[in-house]
Write a structure and sequence with these properties.
Length: 116
């Protein structure tokens, strides 16, 4: 049975919405969940940058709760929390907890020499 939901990608096809996936993630010793989570955070950071969520030190401030990530990744809370922890341990993100049920402020990090 052929799946009629998908059509061939042609030269004049419109590009559907996509998620930028940084190439430097591919060789890193991280789970695929952590890599996809980083790509989601990277996408969110672009939106935050456009909306002016910039700290005094010019870093981009973003908010992405475990619940939001869990829904986007379609994974359990435990797997999602583990992916956040992997990214923190690797140095790719820094989370600053705010307390009182408020979401953590996340700072995304990229390898040295990769920023414009």
């Amino acid at each position: 049975m052929q799946n009629n939901i998908f059509i061939p990608y042609k030269a004049d096809s419109a590009v559907p919405p996509y998620l930028p996936f940084p190439r430097f993630l591919i060789p890193l010793d991280l789970s695929n969940d952590a890599k996809v989570l980083y790509a989601l955070l990277f996408d969110r950071a672009g939106i935050s940058k456009e909306n002016g969520f910039i700290e005094a030190d010019r870093t981009v401030r973003l908010y992405f709760t475990v619940q939001e990530a869990k829904e986007k990744l379609r994974r359990s809370r435990q797997v999602t929390t583990r992916a956040f922890q992997e990214l923190e341990r690797s140095g790719l993100i820094v989370r600053r907890k705010q307390g009182l049920g408020r979401p953590a402020v996340i700072t995304l990090r990229i390898p040295a020499g990769k920023e414009d």
